[in-house]
Design goal:
By secondary structure, the protein is α/β, with parallel strands linked by helices. Helices cover 41% and strands 13% of the residues. The protein is built from 23 helices and 23 strands. The strands form six sheets. A six-stranded mixed sheet has the order 8-12-13-17-19-18. Helix 6 links the parallel strand 9 (259-263) and strand 10. Helix 5 runs parallel beside helix 10 (353-363). The radius of gyration is 27 Å and the shape is globular. Residues 6-15, 91-96 and 134-169 have low confidence and may be disordered.
Length: 711
């Protein structure tokens, strides 16, 4: 039989028409068109842009030919397709970029808190494993179930991790086959059914069904219901587990024609994923998709995005690829939506704990990186802090496990950095002031060295919203490109989403978008079908972004203020100590001292001066001295509450049990390990943390301050 005919190509829109003087956004930077037409250095129509910032490559002249004049490094030539028209330069006085930067730092702090919580829970698990190596449990083991809730599916973080680890080690395919046989399709389900692995037509039919389901339920109580029935979802995941079991840590994509579409973080934002499939076309052997991790958490439809990716991947494995991101891991997923997680909650609402376990099975099998035509490496986070990592070392990592939250060896550290590291502008490595929890940053020299060692042209990564609030950013002398595909991330910051279109010659285009809602997308598709011609959104990404800016500022400001209050609460004892040292026996400090204390004590760099009035409250501000603050009234507004009633008594009881069999000398050493005769605040906190069994550190610090008379 002759091979099936290839699907018809979607008509491509004509090249963008630009006029001299147009304002455009290029790779996240704004500028004016100063030249448009043919050039002597390449074929086709090129736009010569005078950028506002000194991030270009020339002064308007290329290879001795002057096309226009501008300041050095303000000129840039790009194909017209890489330009996004805007109305004019952004209003630098609006404060929106600074607010967005603060919001992104808050997000990073939340992720860092998740890492730190994972590190603490791992210590508890290690302690219990050492104490009860043969599965025996202490008499007070049920207390583990009362640990701090993350708002996620399983509640207590430490117990959930242990429980899921236990589930992952049992059952296997036979257990899932038994579960699958007991699940029926809903009688009203009208989507495709898979008796065998899906075809491309099946995957397209599932996409159409998901869009109809989500559009029909937008704004209703059914918005959190599963678009894909339980039985079909489980079957797709089981097939995916089989597929990824046979895939290495580093996947190679080799294309001789067509292109690779690189997609960054989508974080459950189904509208972005559907828009990208529409605008770039479905996955085929000449239109290969590479999803660079962080599909999970934050958004409401990560489940549907994963299942659609899997359906297309199973239909044509060479046309769809998926890397692992730092959010494809248990410790992030069990956090609540408000803490940067939410995937466990989503799976629990749509399916059950067995499905969440199966998702974790698949996550633990996802590849860590993908190499395109041997010279471009795509990974989620960043490069290793060792400055000597090789692809062979990456290939040797034991990836079939949760991402290590507390690396103990070189392999763990490499795994951790691939998922969590961020670039910085200066050479060398450092620790992230935003994420904390041991997360690294790497400079241009690290990227250059990594490319040289591994014979790479460049590295593509995702993991963070570019500071320009576009979905794309070129860094490290062009060797590093960030792609972030979730537009208007979390419905907050008004950023455009981005993708990269990579050719066989490894030339690339960086594209920006603002995704319409799923309902709007269906209307556009219906119009397109009726007219038999591609339709386009009525507004370009920058116009959409501007129309949302006022609402985005309000939402971001509320989020940043809430996080600031939490940080003040956590650092209250240290702030009190700082202010007492600078108050000279009074309870009044200057505004500058108040801000200085926040910057000195709180590890997350935030715009404290813009929010100080709201943080301290009217009662703490002296009406006759606008720059003065009553710091005791200020700090008195904040106290740590805990949802577990009586936890303080339980903790003190635990300490009593630990001291029962100690003599006087051992008891003193228990609280005063350096035996200097003084129990410091830090020493007491350390004792409380060691016996807390999951109580948040902020609560323990507050208790320590109270016990020492500092609260």
């Amino acid at each position: 039989a002759p091979p099936p005919a290839p699907p018809p190509r979607r008509p491509r829109p004509p090249p963008m028409s630009l006029a001299l003087g147009d304002w455009v956004s290029v790779r996240g930077h704004e500028g004016q068109v100063r030249y448009f037409g043919a050039t002597g250095f390449s074929e086709g129509m090129w736009a010569g842009i005078e950028l506002q910032a000194a991030v270009g490559r020339n002064d308007g002249a290329v290879r001795g030919v002057r096309y226009f004049s501008c300041a050095p490094r303000h000129g840039l030539f790009v194909p017209a397709s890489q330009c996004v028209k805007i109305d004019g330069p952004s209003d630098s006085g609006s404060g929106a970029p600074d607010l967005a930067d603060a919001w992104v730092k808050v997000e990073g702090a939340d992720e860092g808190a998740a890492l730190k919580a994972g590190q603490e829970s791992q210590k508890v698990i290690d302690y219990l494993t050492a104490q009860y190596p043969h599965g025996a449990t202490p008499d007070k083991a049920p207390a583990l179930k009362k640990e701090r809730s993350s708002g996620g599916f399983f509640g207590g973080r430490s117990s959930s991790r242990a429980r899921v680890k236990n589930q992952l080690s049992q059952g296997g395919d036979e257990a899932y086959a038994t579960l699958l046989a007991e699940i029926d399709l809903p009688p009203d389900y009208a989507g495709p059914c898979f008796e065998s692995r899906p075809t491309a037509a099946d995957a397209a039919a599932l996409l159409a069904h998901v869009k109809r389901h989500v559009a029909a339920s937008e704004g209703s109580a059914a918005a959190s219901s599963a678009a894909v029935p339980h039985r079909i979802a489980m079957q797709l995941l089981l097939w995916a587990r089989q597929h990824f079991s046979n895939v290495g840590n580093v996947v190679d994509i080799c294309i001789a024609q067509g292109r690779v579409v690189v997609v960054g973080d989508t974080h459950g934002q189904l509208a972005d994923f559907c828009w990208l499939l529409r605008s770039h076309g479905p996955p085929t052997l000449e239109n290969v998709y590479l999803i660079n991790g962080d599909v999970a958490d934050r958004g409401a439809h990560a489940v549907e995005i994963f299942l659609l990716i899997i359906a297309f991947l199973l239909a044509e494995p060479a046309a769809m690829h998926l890397n692992r991101g730092n959010h494809e891991s248990l410790d992030m997923n069990v956090r609540g939506f408000h803490e940067g997680g939410g995937f466990a909650t989503e799976v629990g609402a749509k399916y059950d704990s067995a499905m969440f376990t199966l998702f974790q099975d698949v996550f633990n099998l996802l590849p860590l990186a993908t190499r395109v035509n041997s010279e471009v490496l795509v990974l989620h986070g960043g490069l290793s802090r060792t400055n000597s990592a090789t692809l062979a070392q990456i290939s040797a990592i034991d990836r079939r496990r949760p991402i290590p939250v507390a690396p103990v060896n070189a392999e763990d550290m490499l795994f951790f950095d691939l998922m969590w590291a961020d670039p910085r502008a200066v050479d060398g490595v450092g620790l992230s002031a935003v994420r904390g929890a041991g997360c690294a940053t790497f400079g241009p020299d690290i990227t250059r060295r990594f490319c040289e060692i591994n014979r790479l042209r460049m590295v593509i990564r995702s993991h963070e919203v570019p500071k320009s609030l576009s979905g794309v950013q070129v860094q490290h002398a062009g060797r590093l490109v960030t792609i972030f595909s979730a537009s208007n991330y979390c419905g907050r910051i008004g950023n455009t989403g981005g993708t990269m279109l990579l050719t066989p010659a490894l030339d690339y285009q960086l594209m920006e978008h603002w995704a319409p809602t799923v309902s709007e997308l269906l209307v556009m598709e219906a119009e397109e079908e009726a007219e038999k011609a591609p339709s386009t959104p009525k507004e370009n990404p920058s116009e959409k972004r501007k129309s949302f800016s006022a609402q985005a500022n309000e939402l971001m400001r509320a989020d940043v203020l809430q996080k600031m209050k939490e940080l003040v609460c956590e650092q209250k004892p240290a702030l009190a100590q700082f202010y007492e040292q600078h108050a000279g026996g009074s309870d009044v400090i200057t505004r500058e001292t108040a801000i200085g204390g926040l910057r000195e004590v709180v590890p997350t760099p935030l715009p404290w001066d813009d929010f100080l009035t709201e943080l301290v409250g009217d009662a703490a501000l002296l009406s006759d001295e606008d720059d003065a603050v009553r710091f005791r009234l200020f700090l008195g507004r904040y106290r740590v509450a805990h949802e577990q009633e009586g936890w303080q008594a339980d903790l003190l009881s635990s300490l009593h049990d630990a001291l029962t069999h100690k003599d006087l000398k051992s008891t003193l050493a228990f609280f005063d390990p350096n035996e200097d005769g003084v129990v410091t605040y830090e020493e007491l906190v350390e004792v409380l943390v060691d016996h807390s069994m999951g109580i948040p550190e902020a609560s323990l610090k507050a208790l320590a301050a109270t016990l020492l008379g500092q609260g």
